[in-house]
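From the methods appendix. Each design record in this collection lists the tokenized structure first, followed by the designed amino acid sequence. Records were kept in a plain field format so they could be parsed without special tools. The example shown here is representative of the layout used throughout.

RECORD:
FOLD TOKENS (232 positions):
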């Protein structure tokens, strides 16, 4: 299990890394993360309603959602959001309610504001992943879902050793290579009203996962956790 603390990932470093990446982000990370984005959007659309995308980046996902969904995007990086605003304009996305600079760990929304909180390739880049997940659960309505696509580190073996070796370099790019699935599962099991409902391996190389959590209450029924047992 990763032992990285918030001191290992700081917001300024991440902000700097994404300011540099913004002009080339879509070219470098567009296609490689496509399948994960598709799966996350499909999961979010099954719930529908008002969707918050945290770490929306250049807004690469925004045109893919059904126009019936009302979207709000937040990101720590203004240069990434500038790209997202251009995209909203280009595609005439009238269903995008807002795009704002915001820290995932301190969301400026009242409790129970959204039907779905989506975070794609984000949770392992924030200083305090568990506190960030708490914040997602806070702004989520009862019956809603948190939908993540996240890197999941190996627990042991060669991949685990390589991830450990690569971590200092990855940190400068604003990434964590070491982050076990156990952290997500442990967060869900100690968080009131939150249940892990799915984990599904995603490309590239199955090193990423689609992870869904449901918040109890409300009218929405979350599907069976059988997929978790199959995938873990
Ligand atoms: C790997 S990119 C993913 C972008 C987009 N979700 C995608 O699918 O390509 C990570 C994004 O998370 C944002 N981010 C990192 N830390 C954040 C934080 N603490 N609060 C909000 N956004 C953050 C970065 O600025 C960047 O846009």
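DESIGN:
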């Amino acid at each position: 299990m990763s032992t990285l603390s918030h001191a290992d990932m700081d917001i300024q470093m991440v902000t700097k890394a994404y300011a540099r990446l913004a002009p080339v982000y879509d070219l470098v990370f567009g296609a490689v993360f496509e399948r994960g984005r598709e799966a996350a959007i499909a999961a979010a659309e099954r719930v529908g309603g008002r969707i918050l995308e945290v770490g929306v980046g250049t807004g690469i996902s925004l045109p893919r959602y059904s126009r019936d969904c009302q979207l709000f995007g937040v990101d720590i990086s203004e240069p990434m959001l500038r790209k997202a605003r251009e995209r909203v304009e280009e595609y005439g996305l009238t269903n995008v309610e807002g795009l704002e600079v915001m820290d995932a760990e301190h969301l400026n929304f009242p409790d129970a504001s959204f039907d779905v909180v989506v975070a794609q390739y984000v949770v392992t880049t924030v200083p305090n992943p568990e506190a960030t997940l708490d914040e997602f659960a806070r702004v989520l309505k009862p019956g809603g879902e948190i939908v993540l696509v996240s890197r999941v580190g190996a627990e042991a073996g060669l991949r685990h050793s390589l991830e450990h070796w690569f971590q200092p370099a990855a940190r400068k790019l604003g990434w964590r290579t070491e982050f076990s699935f156990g952290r997500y599962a442990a967060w869900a099991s100690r968080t009131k009203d939150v249940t892990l409902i799915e984990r599904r391996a995603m490309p590239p190389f199955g090193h990423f996962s689609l992870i869904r959590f449901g918040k109890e209450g409300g009218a929405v029924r979350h599907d069976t956790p059988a997929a978790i047992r199959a995938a873990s």
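APPENDIX NOTE: The first helix runs from residue 11 to 21.
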